Amino acid sequence: MPNPLFDALFAQHIGANTPFLHLPAGSIWTHDRFLRRAAQFANTLTDHGLKPGDRLAVQISKSPDALALYAACVQAGVVFLPLNPAYTPPEVAYFVDDSDAGLLICADDDRVALQGAVGAPIETLNADGTGTFAQSAQDQPETFSTATRSSDDLAALLYTSGTTGRSKGAMLTQANLLSNAETLAELWQFTADDCLLHALPIFHTHGLFVATNVTLIAGGAMAFLPKFDPDAIFAALPRATAMMGVPTFYTRLLDDPRLSAKTTTHMRLFISGSAPLLADTHTAFEARTGHRILERYGMTETNMTTSNPYAGERRPGTVGPPLPGVEVKICDDNGNSLPSGEIGMLEVRGPNVFSGYWQMPDKTAAEIRPDGFFITGDLARIDPDGYVQIVGRDKDLIISGGFNIYPKEVELALDAQPGVLESAVIGIPHPDMGEAVVGILVAEPGTTLDTAEISTALSASLARFKQPRRLIVVDALPRNTMGKVQKNILRDAHNKLFDTHP
Ligand code: MLC
Ligand code: AMP
């Protein structure tokens, strides 16, 4: 029975005793071991009543088991909904409720807090392979009768914050993920001989789909690290052939004296994405190592859209031409194409583009045009030879260390604090994270704000990476004649905040 994504990524490896995951402690998960575990998980999900099309929410730290849950969902036809472990219980409750997930899998340590917030049943799976879900799985068969799925069926639901503060679930089909995996593996020339240095989280497009699916479809292996840690990176580097990272990975590696042409001589490819890679970083990396970082561009909603070439010129400050089979154009507000070289809204169409926002037909219609072009919110220009340059964003979005933060969500949390009249949240250049979150506050008349107290209060509702690194109290927010807060004035005023005090 067909299941295009499972057939292409996983089925070919059933029974294969080839290495798939190299773990820092030295142990290896073969493809076969991984898929037997995934089959046990698929049986367990089915026993919990999850059927094809149902959603499984997962908030656990990175581990081989966490990845096996993804494979289990694909095999059982269950829609995979991974969540950042940094999310607080109220944030998780929103995702689980909105998606009407049939089950939430979390760590034992988080169970009590989540039980109070979430309506769905909860099972646990810890990084060491223990937990109630693991217990139920251990006596299950190590094979599973793969669920029949079609290319248009959903494979994953990935939540992305919205400009209104309410997160939207991006519906990703089997075809979206498969077309991108096939295209990227070919473009970047991944083979069964590759070992990808994998230090990214696996709850986002980059670490889960780009990194993992490309490796799987090529039949390669991964040096699978729990997180980015320079010591672990340099320990794993000798076995790796390629690495994918966000720009912060590259600036942190450049800060490390171990990075050299010698330590990276055997590597064939370094890829960057999820946030702008400064041309200076590109140049410095090449000067130190001799490797030209390959930058590509994508989004949760579109998977990957453009990439610098593998063999041709990797041009710093650009994200390369569109992928084969993907169309891009630069448009005005009405979707009309602008003349070549002009800056405008980047719109994308192709098999990579998601099918819409979960139960939000109005938002889907506002962002996907009737002819199928998706409005990315990124401002770009296209060079005469087809290279795309992302020059800015037409969406109020902060990208910090590769994580997205929508200011509106943080502003709503700040405005709810006693004594706060209003707030504006901005992104300020940061040497390590690219951008950092800063909150500008106005106090209610006659009130003095205690910013430390406000910061502490925010930690109950907002994940740490969304919390402002700095809170600044001002008398009034700058507004234009329409009454709209002029964030550009605030950004200019505080532009150098992290130059001397990161
Ligand atoms: C951690 N913190 C962050 C943060 N990550 N704060 C802001 N932004 C981030 N990205 C918090 C920690 O909780 C900690 O808080 C403090 O900041 C410092 O932590 P750290 O130890 O320096 O951070 P670290 O754990 O090393 O993580 C930094 C990082 C990580 C950059 C390695 O964030 C990371 O792996 N980012 C990758 C994100 C990613 O995969 N994005 C892909 C999205 S998909 P405290 O209070 O404890 O000090 C996508 C599509 C596409 O965008 O095109 O790919
Ligand atoms: P996300 O919603 O987490 O998928 O983030 C997608 C956003 O990250 C895009 O809309 C861009 O703004 C940004 N992005 C991803 N890759 C790049 C890149 N190479 N250069 C600049 N911005 C990028």
Features:
single chain; 502 residues; alpha/beta; Rossmann fold; GMP Synthetase, Chain A, domain 3; 8-stranded mixed beta sheet; 4-stranded parallel beta sheet; 16 helices; 23 strands; globular; binds malonyl-coenzyme A; binds adenosine monophosphate
Note down, in words, how this protein is organized.
- By secondary structure, this protein is α/β, with parallel strands linked by helices.
- Among the domains are: 1-17 and 30-149, Rossmann fold, CATH 3.40.50.980; 398-494, ANL, C-terminal domain (GMP Synthetase, Chain A, domain 3, 2-Layer Sandwich), CATH 3.30.300.30.
- It is 30% helix and 24% strand.
- The strands form 6 sheets. Strands 2-1-10-9-11-12-13-14 form an 8-stranded mixed beta sheet.
- α2 packs across α3 (64-76), α2 packs across α6 (132-138) and α10 (247-254) crosses α11.
- It binds malonyl-coenzyme A (MLC) and adenosine monophosphate.
Strand arrangement within the widest β-sheet reads 2-1-10-9-11-12-13-14
The major sheet is characterized as:
8 strands, mixed
Number of helices: 16
Bound molecules: malonyl-coenzyme A, adenosine monophosphate
Mean of pLDDT: 96
Return the structural class: alpha/beta
Instruction: Output the CATH topology of the domain at 1-17 and 30-149.
Output: Rossmann fold
Rg for CA atoms: 23 Å
